[in-house]
Structures are given as C-alpha cells and as structure tokens.
Amino acid sequence: xxxxxxxxxxxxxxxxxxxxxxxxxxxxxxxxxxxxxxxxxxxxxxxxxxxxxxxxxxxxxxxxxxxxxxxxxxxxxxxxxxxxxxxxxxxxxxxxxxxxxxxxxxxxxxxxxxxxxxxxxxxxxxxxxxxxxxxxxxxxxxxxxxxxxxxxxxxxxxxxxxxxxxxxxxxxxxxxxxxxxxxxxxxxxxxxxxxxxxxxxxxxxxxxxxxxxxxxxxxxxxxxxxxxxxxxxxxxxxxxxxxxxxxxxxxxxxxxxxxxxxxxxxxxxx
Amino acid sequence: xxxxxxxxxxxxxxxxxxxxxxxxxxxxxxxxxxxxxxxxxxxxxxxxxxxxxxxxxxxxxxxxxxxxxxxxxxxxxxxxxxxxxxxxxxxxxxxxxxxxxxxxxxxxxxxxxxxxxxxxxxxxxxxxxxxxxxxxxxxxxxxxxxxxxxxxxxxxxxxxxxxxxxxxxxxxxxxxxxxxxxxxxxxxxxxxxxxxxxxxxxxxxxxxxxxxxxxxxxxxxxxxxxxxxxxxxxxxxxxxxxxxxxxxxxxxxxxxxxxxxxxxxxxxxxxxxxxxxxxxxxxxxxxxxxxxxxxxxxxxxxxxxxxxxxxxxxxxxxxxxxxxxxxxxxxxxxxxxxxxxxxxxxxxxxxxxxxxx
Lengths: 270, 357
Ligand SMILES: Nc1ncnc2c1ncn2[C@@H]1O[C@H](COP(=O)(O)OP(=O)(O)O)[C@@H](O)[C@H]1O
Ligand SMILES: [Mg+2]
Hints:
The complex is a heterodimer.
Chain A: H1 2-7, H2 11-39, H3 55-62, H4 64-97, H5 103-111, H6 118-132, H7 138-162, H8 167-174, H9 179-207, H10 211-216, H11 224-234, H12 238-262
Helix pairs in contact in A: 2-12, 3-12, 4-5, 4-7, 4-9, 4-11, 7-9, 8-9, 9-12
Chain B: H1 2-5, E1 14-23, E2 27-37, E3 42-46, H2 53-61, E4 68-73, E5 76-77, E6 88-91, H3 103-113, H4 118-131, H5 147-159, E7 165-169, H6 177-194, E8 198-202, H7 205-211, E9 214-219, E10 222-227, H8 229-234, H9 239-244, E11 249-256, E12 259-262, E13 267-268, E14 277-283, E15 289-290, E16 298-307, E17 311-317, E18 324-329, E19 342-346, E20 353-355
Parallel strand pairs in B: 3-8, 3-9, 6-7, 7-8
Antiparallel strand pairs in B: 1-2, 1-4, 4-5, 9-10, 11-12, 11-14, 12-13, 14-20, 15-19, 16-17, 16-19, 17-18
Bound molecules: adenosine-5'-diphosphate and magnesium ion (MG).
C-alpha cells in the first residue's frame, strides 16, 4: 500500500501537504520578515536587506525607555499569570464541582471578556478608575490584564476537569485521604497541565496586551507594546523589529521553561 | 477505632438494615435492602445491569448518602461516617489508579495517609506487590501496564492497608476471558488466605457461583434471595432468580395435594403441596431425563442439538408450549440423539422447585 503510494503520488495527499505547507508558511513568514528587518543595518525598514548587524538589538537593549517598559511588561505579565491561574483554576473547580445553580450561565459570564473588544474593556476600566479616583496604578493595569486572561485559564482547566475520572479521587478518599488531602494529592496534580497551559496563555495575553494597556498606563511608565506603538509613530527603524524578536523569544522561553519545569503533557491527554 | 487506625484491624462483619437510596428524588435505585455479611465471608451482589448493585456498594463505602436504613461494620454504625475514616479497601471496575504516580506510590498511598514510618511502608508495599505477583514493576506508571497488571495494582493498593472489608465493583469486568478466570481464582485464593470480608459486585452468574460463599440476587433495587451458590441454583425462590441463574424450564399451573397440575390438564411430577394454589414449577435442564414412552411426562421432537463439550443441550418441542431444554452429560457409551427424533421426557418430583408467580 505505502509502496504503491510512493511510486504513484496520491493527488489528495499532495493537496493535503500543499495546504499544510501554505498554513505553516503564513504562520512563519511574518516572523521571518521581522527577523530579517531586525538584522538589516539600513536606518529605515527596507527590502531586500543590505547586510547583517546587531545595531538595532544594541539600540533596544541600551535604551532606558525600552528597558524600563520591557521590565514593567514582564513584571505585569508574571503577576497576571499568577493571579489568573489562581482565579481561573478556582472558578473552574467551583463551576464543575460546586453544584452551583446556573453554572452554565456563570461559565458564559466568566468567559465573556473574550467576547468584548479589548478596547471597550480598556475604555470601561479607564472610566471606572477615573470615576472612583484611584488613578492609573500598576495594580489597576494588572487587574485589567487579568480580566481578559482569566478566561484562558478557565477554559483549559474546564477541559481537563470535564475529562476527569472522579473515581480516582474516591480511591484516594477510601484509602484514608481527607477531602483536603485528596485535593492536594490527586485533584491538583491531575488538573495541573490544564492550569499551566492556561497560565502560559495568560502570560502571553498580558505581555502582548495593547488595547487595554493603552488606556491604563501612565505616560512615564508604559508597557512595551505601548512604547513600541508610540515609537513607531515617529521612527520606523529596525529597533521595532528587534523589540518584536525579543518579545517573541520571551514568550517562547516562558512556554519552554514551564514545559520543562512542570511538564504539560507528562501524564494527562489534553 | 484507634486499633484499626494502626492497621491492626481484623475482618469485620457488615450489616445493612432496611437501606434505601433514591437518586434525584425520582430513581429508586436501592429499595429496603437488608443483608448481613459475616467476617471473612466472600459475599456477592449479583443481578442484571441497573439493579442497584453499585449503589449498594457505594453506600457501604460512603460515596453515596443513605436515604433510609442503617449500615453497621464490625458492630459500629458507620452510616454517617466520612469515607476516609471507614478503613475499607475498594477495587473499582476502572481500577482508578493514580495516573501520575508509580506502582509503588499507588500502593503506598493508603499507608502514607496513615502516617506510617517510611521503612514500614516500603516493607508492606514490597510484600503486597509480591502477593499480587508484581515484583519488578515498582517504578512503572499505570499507563505502562496491561489491564491485568493494573488490576493487580488496584488490588494491592486496596489490601495493603489491611482493610476491615474489601469492596469490589465488577473488578474483572474489563479483562478477557482467560485472564478473568485466572484472576477469579487468585482473588478467591487471596481472600481466603487473608481472611478478608469481601463484598463482590458482578452481573456474571458464573463468576458469582464459582467464587462466593453466599450470593444476594438483586432485582430492581431489591434483594430477591440470599443463599449459598448451591441454594441459589438448586432452590431459587422467585421466578426472577430461577430465570437469571443458569437455564431453567418453567411451567405455569396449580399446585395441590396430589402434585402439580399444568394449565391444560396434564399432571407433572412434583412434591405434594397443602392446599390448592396457582404456582410456577421450575426444573433445571440437567434434571430432565430421557425415558421410555410409558413413564414419560412429555413427548416431543428434538428441535436442536448443541454439543457443548462435557454435555449436550437439546431443545425438545412438545405440542402447545415453548421448547423444553434438556442437558445430558456426555458419557462415552451414550448414543447421540439427532434432530427430528421423537423422545420422551420426565424428572423426579424432588428435583423441581415451586414458587409463586
Ligand atoms: N449518580 C446517579 N444519578 C442518577 N441515577 C443513578 C446514578 N447512579 C445510578 N443511577 C441509577 O440507579 C439505578 C441503579 O444503578 P446501579 O447501582 O449503578 O446499578 P448496577 O450497578 O446494578 O448496574 C439505575 O437505574 C441507574 O440508572
Ligand atoms: Mg454497576
């Protein structure tokens, strides 16, 4: 069967490979282009590249504006990761296990920040903070990001909980584990991959967040996407591309580190 | 209780008194069940799917609340005791092993919950794994084991805590036939060796008959009959039990001082009854004999012949009723009967069972 397929290529298979190739290309191409611009030494974005240099990376890493905003973005994203993991996982547990009346409605409600355009959420939060007189503190920014990050954790945790064999918890209970021990010995380790996957999304959602941040940052302490946006209004040079590459590498590192440290799919089929 | 917590518990008795359970206020799953299991007894709950076996077992384990009635284990009322204090072992049909833990960690779990010393845990885990012939698999995850091996881990995990009673919900249901028979034997062996009180849920009558000291046959949430395998098989007390366990020929008619009168006039061999009453006469296929024409109860043609190794099962069609099953042991000198042959059937009066409709 496979031998004959090798001799006479199957047109369906060729079409399948072509479609997959096209999809991969459209996903990778923008990153490749940004990568090319990031190492092209010309002082404006142009194609084809004229050489190779790290001057834009140097500019990015030596600029206090960029560095302060990168540092702020990272701190905010880590805070959002922690908060949304705690809130999202607890919400998911309550929704699936809590015997709550109207849990379907509640699920839809907690997922709703995904349905709203983020720019509206940002505007609404801006007005809320303004009216309540809290100004625009960093914790307000963290809360705004957490609002849109929680649904990701919620969704991935719910997926794991729905496939959860509760007999495993019962087995722990009859072996002498109190409800609290059952949670920490069995439930938590088994939903962990879902929670971590959601946490990674939460980190990236925060780290890349632009519309909400736009409303909630103070002029002298802006997150990286806002700084990049403002920078682009006046200079369109390779520093933007270098910053983008750094962002991508950061996001990727988080995924890989969490994968390696805690393991996403070690024993649960997601 | 302190003694049991230290793992010194012996096998305990189980008493269910008038236990009932309704799900969602609608489904009456278990209806007024009363049963007593003796210490060290292998006790089976047998019945068709949906008759309430699992629910009964889960109430003993404490996973389901009891609507009415009380449950005592070892003389102690445990009806409202939390699951984790019950000192019971349970083997689930799906095994319910901890997928994120190794075999050793799975088996050690209950001992760890009891706060035993490391050395004692290691020793008892080793002994339990040896008992179920799983030495050498200590560091595998459940996902890396076959069904039969997972089954053994589940068993080791349940018995290592020296439970007061062991509960098994169709533990062999997922295994293939050969392995299943082997595990039946091993489980029975283990139960006797350790002197465990074991409540075994199954819908497989052969399994129940082969393994149990006593069997409770359940039907739609109620217990129809409790007895030894012999009693359940030879002396079924209801039509349901007679029909559910093995094969049986049933005749509707009237019992009276002279014996049994089949609807339609014919007299059947049966013990005498006092008073005249409508009843069902039941006779097992192996109790029906081929006889000469003169002494026969029924005459008819052989409709089908099933050779089943040690015996042959015949279906005999007598006019005006459903076929009568006859089981004949295959002795060497027996001449084979052929389909279409005219035969005459009878049985001994003491081999029949009479019960109400
Ligand atoms: N969690 C539940 N919720 C509602 N009904 C249930 C539940 N569990 C079992 N039942 C019902 O109770 C009856 C007995 O079920 P079960 O005890 O599982 O029977 P068995 O183990 O003998 O097959 C069935 O009609 C079943 O549908
Ligand atoms: Mg069941």
